[in-house]
Amino acid sequence: MQKTPALQITNLSKHFGGAVALDGVSLSVSRGEVHGLLGQNGSGKSTLIKILSGFLAPQPGAKLVLYDREIPLPLTPGQFRELGMAFVHQHLGLIPSLSVTENICLSDFATQNQWRIDWRGETQRIRRILTEYELAIDPTTKIQDLPQVDRCLVAIVRAMEEVRSAQEAHGGEGILVLDEPTPFLPRIGVEKLFNLVRQLVKKDASVIFVSHDVDEIMEITDRATVLRDGQVAGVIETDRTSPEDFIELIIGKRVTAYQATHRKKPADRSAVIVSDLSGATCRNVSFDLSGGEVLGLTGLIGSGFDEIPSLIYGARTALDGMLSIDGKETMLREMNPEKAIGLGMAFLPADRIGASGAGTLPISDNMTLPSMANFARKLGLDRLGMRQWAQETGAAHDVRPNNPDLNLENLSGGNQQKVLLAKWLELKPRLLLLDEPTQGVDVGARQQVFAAIDQAAREGASIVCASTDAEQLAQICDRVIVFAQGRPVIELTGERLTKEEIVFQCYSALSVDQTALVE
Ligand SMILES: Nc1ncnc2c1ncn2[C@@H]1O[C@H](COP(=O)(O)OP(=O)(O)OP(=O)(O)O)[C@@H](O)[C@H]1O
């Protein structure tokens, strides 16, 4: 039996100048339902969510009904709280210089009239809440000092608490909107999130869940609305739909699983040698790569694999270690990004806008940043040349829309990633360091990113890819090293290089005897 709707949107459109991001979209989410919102990068999902949060105003003519009550649009900033909605946005919306407690309490202070804040009491309350959620996060830590995974969990806890208090105030009513919350979460975090989501909907709240991960969609949603080019391509009931059908509806055609083509027997592994690398978590890590080889690094969060690309590139300072590229040795303690680029390295960090690109600068500036010297003229920069180059590169990497004047932050998440990867690939790096290269990238664009990585490998680059995405590693890597407690524990190649085996090894690595480490 169809449950009564919690949220109904009809005729929702949004234009940015001449570009149409949403075109007459309808969305209906039932009480107690987890509703997926799917679509390729740039299909309009975040725009819809930003309208629901009052951040953007839609074109006139749209209608929003919440629990049988018509709510005039546009919403005013912060009005979503009174309406019982809570959001986890792609960029999390946390204030880095404030503590976990301050960030979680901010929304309470926005809605309550308090003349004095009992910070000690609040900190104890938040500590209790974090314990309830089984999270080992110190509430006094500043957000900027937390790893990305914990930041994400804090944003989720904050939204969960907002929905919980909305439910208490409105007899079960409450809508949680999760805009791609999982790319930064390890599997165990995803399971935790899904359990919380199930508890919420059991109590009649509703959840809108945006994700590019078809397995996750299959696991957690009851129904899903698929957007394509700003319009509804279809509404589907999850348990009547196969993953292949989901993908076909999302991208408009059937795709077959990607398989890298550059695979070959790495003959000489002396192109890149990392020896005795130590950082905050990883200890005495050594590995080597041949030219044209893609090496995956993985493990559970906290196992230390994820800091390796930034330590090699000098974005974080290594405690110890040596890097050799084509026989040229450098102490990793002394590495910095400028030296790294000089040695032919390129680094795509996981934190897209924070560490990889400048959101408020145009695409053309972002793309030409590492190669700016090529555009320097006596009287300044050759802006026309930069723009043209950015447009050609954008076309080659299928950036949509391919408008070099658009600020990077105005591209959809996946298209931002394409821009940032393109800027490095065009430099033809000797050593390409990737940290979660396809998070937030849709199933179609994911294949394009894989193909670009494959092409770089075929042209002779050595590639290190740190990721928790086992499927991605199995598809693009020649070898994968699994980490536990800061050390490599097993290396997978050939027949053993499968998604299932990688996941299995990540979890069994937890109990591994530390004397049996891979050297
Ligand atoms: N402020 C803006 N100015 C101009 N164009 C914008 C702006 N915000 C979004 N767009 C455009 O609107 C379209 C929809 O973007 P949106 O972020 O909603 O996509 P999405 O489905 O959330 O994609 P992703 O999965 O990559 O996050 C894109 O073409 C994007 O470039």
TrEMBL record:
Domain ABC transporter positions: 7-510
GO molecular function ontology, one term from the record: ATP hydrolysis activity
UniProt keyword annotation of ATP-binding present: yes
UniProt-listed InterPro entries: AAA+_ATPase, ABC_carbohydrate_import_ATPase, ABC_transporter-like_ATP-bd, ABC_transporter-like_CS, P-loop_NTPase
Keywords, ordered alphabetically: ATP-binding, Membrane, Nucleotide-binding, Repeat, Sugar transport, Transport
Coiled coil residues, start to end: none
Listed SMART domains: AAA (SM00382)
Top-level taxonomic group: Bacteria
PANTHER family: CARBOHYDRATE TRANSPORT ATP-BINDING PROTEIN MG119-RELATED (PTHR43790), GALACTOFURANOSE TRANSPORTER ATP-BINDING PROTEIN YTFR (PTHR43790:SF9)
Protein family per UniProt: Belongs to the ABC transporter superfamily.
Protein name per UniProt: Sugar ABC transporter ATP-binding protein
Organism: Flavimaribacter sediminis
Phylogenetic placement of the source organism: Bacteria, Pseudomonadati, Pseudomonadota, Alphaproteobacteria, Hyphomicrobiales
